Amino acid sequence: MDRRWYSAALPPKAIKILLTVMLFCMTGCVPRTEKDVVVYSALDEDFAFPILEAFERKVDYDINVVSKFDVESTKTVGLVNQLIAEENSPRCDLFWNNEIMHTVRLQKLGLLEPHDWPVPADWPSELIASDSTWCGFAARARVLLINTKLLASDDSMPSSVGELSDPKWKENCAMARPLFGTTATHWAVMREQLGREAALAELQAIADNAVILSGNKQVAQAVSSGRVAWGLTDTDDAMIEKDMGYPVEIVFPDQQPDQPGTLRIPNTLAILKNAPHPVAAGRLADYLMTPQTEDRLAMGRSHQMPISKESKFPPAVLPAEPVRWMRADFEAAAEDWDEWANDVAAIYSQK
């Protein structure tokens, strides 16, 4: 290869990034220098990559970000299993999860390092680890998506997650199988709200009453197509159908004083214990945990909801009136995760 052509075709920084990525792909490791930081991201690449790139380009020219994204439907589980497998020889510095429960699982396994998160004192207590090993930001909400052609009146629309088990809606409402993702997180939280046996009984009633689909996206599509009248999904999947012009409406459930409120599930950041590049990981974590990052995610197609009061971009998904958020104890919800997951799987594995 003509070295002069190679040098002219690519700027020095691009060459350095390319060589770092090649080394990561070929050997599964990176040089132990604070010039690099390795990020495993469960947030979709088209959302996360531009923000990570901005850190390199505009903020910190001295640090290269090497990103690993997983495109599988159970990507969070895959990345977490890899982090667990790498416990004795970590490759990842910073884990950017698009949900929270599996981050808490890593915390309980002792795989995360405490960090002084740059958030104000009034940050919601349920969105920061009791030992400071993770912090939550930029949330999605668990909402009801309603087909307004099938349910034209507000009086006829459901308003609570609990209505998934109401025989009134038999085979006309939908929920994702609660074995992965935000639906699994939701019901682990509900276990703490209702008690274990009551939560399992409710899950069995929903399995017998609702249409059970493979994921939140499929639930949103079933509602927008009119296959069912309504379903439980995430705000990002709901907004895709709404933005495409389908006759749907988003309802934030359980807003009455005697109800628990709407569950929000944040992105989370966590620095790995014994990370190869802890200083660089801390600098990147501080960059990401800002109102500016939350605003970028709010402006994107996922319409994620900022936690910071300094955010300047209210996402279109939020209603005009304030939302009552559920007070969720995510650390308690992650207790006995494997046993709980087995109990849920016994109900839903054949659905």
TrEMBL record:
UniProt keyword list: Signal
InterPro entries: Ferric-bd
Transmembrane segments: none
A Pfam family of this chain: SBP_bac_6
Protein name: Fe(3+)-binding periplasmic protein
Lineage: Bacteria, Pseudomonadati, Planctomycetota, Planctomycetia, Pirellulales
